[in-house]
Specification:
alpha/beta, 13% strand, globular, 8-stranded mixed β-sheet, Arc Repressor Mutant, subunit A, homodimer, Aspartate Aminotransferase, domain 2, Aspartate Aminotransferase, domain 1
Amino acid sequence: MDNPAIQTNQDFLYEQVADDIVSMIEAGSFRLGDRIPSVRELSRRRGVSITTVMQAYRSLEDKGYIEARPQSGYYVRLRQSPGLPTPEPISRAALYPAEISVQKLVMKIFHDQLIPGMVQFGAALPDPDLLPTARLNRLLASVSRKPDFRQNACGIVEGCDELRVQVAQHSYQYGCHLAPEDILITSGCVEAMSLALQATCKPGDTVAIESPTYFTLLQMLESQGLRALEIPTHPETGISVEALRFAIEHHPVRACLFITNFNNPLGCLMPDERKAEMVALLAEHEIPLIEDDINGELYFSGRRPNVAKAYDKKGLVLLCSSFSKDISPSYRVGWIVPGRYKDEIERLKLVSNISPPILTQLAIAEFLAGGGYDHHLRTIRKAYAKKTACMADAVLRHFPPGTAVSSPQGGFVLWVQMAKTVDALAMYTQALKLGITIVPGHVFSPSAGYRHFIRLNTAAWSDQTAWAVQRLGTLAAQLEKTH
Amino acid sequence: MDNPAIQTNQDFLYEQVADDIVSMIEAGSFRLGDRIPSVRELSRRRGVSITTVMQAYRSLEDKGYIEARPQSGYYVRLRQSPGLPTPEPISRAALYPAEISVQKLVMKIFHDQLIPGMVQFGAALPDPDLLPTARLNRLLASVSRKPDFRQNACGIVEGCDELRVQVAQHSYQYGCHLAPEDILITSGCVEAMSLALQATCKPGDTVAIESPTYFTLLQMLESQGLRALEIPTHPETGISVEALRFAIEHHPVRACLFITNFNNPLGCLMPDERKAEMVALLAEHEIPLIEDDINGELYFSGRRPNVAKAYDKKGLVLLCSSFSKDISPSYRVGWIVPGRYKDEIERLKLVSNISPPILTQLAIAEFLAGGGYDHHLRTIRKAYAKKTACMADAVLRHFPPGTAVSSPQGGFVLWVQMAKTVDALAMYTQALKLGITIVPGHVFSPSAGYRHFIRLNTAAWSDQTAWAVQRLGTLAAQLEKTH
């Protein structure tokens, strides 16, 4: 590729140079207005003469690909030749595939959240107006100005001390008395869960999960070669200890993976007494529990529910959470309290990516230390409780009779059960065309048992998006009949 | 843990509340000057009366743990009781373990880089004075002020477009013509390599590696249950294609994991023709190559060497790199060009941590787009070439006769071979006591064949640290004799 043989003739050489530039422009590596490499630079780089490069650039100018700007260099210009089709945004082109596997569907759900102008009832993203983005970003700017030798290192595997102290201080609110060294900072809750699974299981092992449960966790199990054992989950009180006992006695359960507070998608809450009972049962069998508490702060009434970790006497509970629901989804800061698996998790973290960036951790730590976090939480709890109630009400009003909705006690997702004849995947595809994202029930269970369910992100509910629930209701009615 | 039974007497209750606070103070969750929960807050939380909490707080005041500040609350105070030992910083306490496994040693090397005041010849960290930290942080502050709806999302699995475009534009310099969609952004090069291994191998598979090679890669293989097959590596020209051919013909090599440009720790450079030959050989056998090019920009003379990816016609090369050596180690931004494994890498990325934070990616993209990156690279290349030459010279002057050093052609590590009687691990431990970090050769090979080698970070060379090389030389002489 480098240093083309000297004997090739000059014409061929300049055409090759020109073709390479065209291919990079067409691939989008150089875009409208970008400066391309200087003549000298490219000449040195390709081992061809200045003349050859100039000849190549002149031919590109003639064809309208680039323009020379005096004293500055060559730039990609807007081509007006009729040959090129008007490009579609990539995200649009991939919107309506003929067939979708669950894996591809999950990937699409993550991409859908980034299509501008959509009503985002799909991914469980917080309401942007309920995030302290401006304040957090100011703190980020402020911590980045302070000289800190840790900025010159590739990271602290266990995470920065300031943030671990804050998480520890907060932990008494959910029934724990954690020390900073009990905590490891991760790149979000997903990373915490992924490390926890790697630390406790080997490929081929069986993991007990709730049904329905968060689709990313199912993808994670699949990717790690683990079997999922579905435990029926009560829509208001979560996993029953009896069902779990039965499962443990009849299956080689290596670990449990539960969202104990406000399961996604059900919004159900396992009562604290039952958590204690469950932890005792698992301790008896030496089975680790990977606990996802990402929604724990977002209770609608009463007090902060405890985590199962609060009842853990043997270090068997790996508590995972993050600040993605209440402070910032895009900072990607989470944590894990790994109990007896601490060394293993630290080792796995090191070979996964060493650590998250230091500045984002410090900004979150400052946010927590600065006071006002509890006040912020009170505000958003109220707002999400209201949004969820309004949306549930709207679904019941606008969807066909017989539609049922969950009664979430926290978090911000709503689980909607429609008539068995409604295919949620068809609804997903048609809703996208209307500018509305949703998540079809298919992805919440490995046995694909929820094909007539959808999950809605209630954080996106507002007077401005109310129309979309109405449209979804109409869609449900059509799909119910045309079956 | 919650709501202790009502029948316990009042005395017991307040003591329990007080004990919990003490244990959190002693664990470091509440530190000197921190405000502890208010009386009302804790009363509500614990389900005990205001009187009980007040009684508990009064007893803590009496014992000197906390102090009341009018109109403000209760704060942790400096205890002056003689009972507590003066605490040592945690990082110090763990400095001199009696026995070290390779795994623990690697973890310690990562921790050593964060001990203030040490001469950092250990971890291969860039010279802080050669990082554009202030400018980068200003860009971070600036991108964080721009409204960007992506800040409200949990991430773009493939990474942000702005940065992918920059990486693509730069790729012609190392012999590639990449399109932005060929590239996925990762949390550093380590994550890129880890995902690449997961995408190409299954536990039990054999991976060909250089010998010696970067210790984190060995830890990664171990953690993924992979076997390492060591290919002898020439200290100046890297892997020989003949040796690799022999290995492939005699072992079930599933993938290769090579640092083609400026191997760590050797600093050797595989000639471009040989890379082409190697890629052709691997293509013939359909064996993927995971290529670490993290040092590629840091050549000391001549021109930017190509990557093996430049010769890849079958999509079998997974090119991995990052900005940790030249722009910022703590931003944790890297990338992968995964070829035919793109879908699989994207899927693995999603279930690992979804994506890196958006703001750090955007800041790096702005840095690259703003111009001056090439100039910055020219400056640091010269500086690292000089530092490396000076340090090599100093080692040869101050270490015992017979000591040999590598001749790095890029990067900033030096590989030092001492007399066989010198135990590099003993040297590591004693150097730490002198305030100098180094990396003992033990960790660069799964067969522990480099026990009388050390790796030095030449980025930390300066007139101010020259004394440390002299001390290490004296240490080597002592260890050579006392054996």
